[in-house]
Amino acid sequence: MTDMYTPIKNKDKYSYVTMCLTITQVTSMEKYIRRLSLVELKLATNNFDTKSEIGYGNMGIMYKAVFPNSMMLAVKRLHKFESFEKEFLLEIQILGRLRNTNLVPLLCFCFEMDKKFLVYKYMSNGTLHQWLHSRPQVEGRKMGWTLRLRIAVGIARGLAWLHHNNALQVAHLKIDSKCILLDDMFEPKISNFGNSIILMTTSGTLSSGCTFVVQHSVPSP
Fold it and tell me: Which Gene3D superfamilies does its entry note (predicted)?
């Protein structure tokens, strides 16, 4: 065991600094959304029972959670074999600050014992991808073209708002049918902001992570 007088190896020192930086950043995100304890999440998901699993993605496993007030939410448990610090913080920074009809609401987060969780409003109709490719065969229901058009318009409105709102302008960069969630009225909700970039901050300055700029141009007469 390393005592206080034993030199820390470079790799261990880097891991320690990275962990501290992440904790500091995550703590600062508490001003946007509530922070939950791991105990609360275990109770709501029956200790992350496999029967509560509702989805699996590149970043983690999604669970259906029922809290003591009977509120049903979705808990994303990030994979242990990847750090996902950047993706985790981006989700909180973007979805914790922005509210729009066509964005999935991020309500809480948890960062405890080196484990990361994101808690969203539960979307009863799953993803658009499921309805286009698998769910109709299972449930015997087809998505008509009128509904498809309404969903497409909702997605376009959400993206336009992300690009031009006055709070935090964002480029998603990875839109597909798997990151479009559908609520009980089939209203589309854009999710998965882990690969996004912030284009413009609230002060009107370009984000340091932005590598491209779309110039405003005056159309020729």
Answer: Phosphorylase Kinase, domain 1, Transferase(Phosphotransferase) domain 1
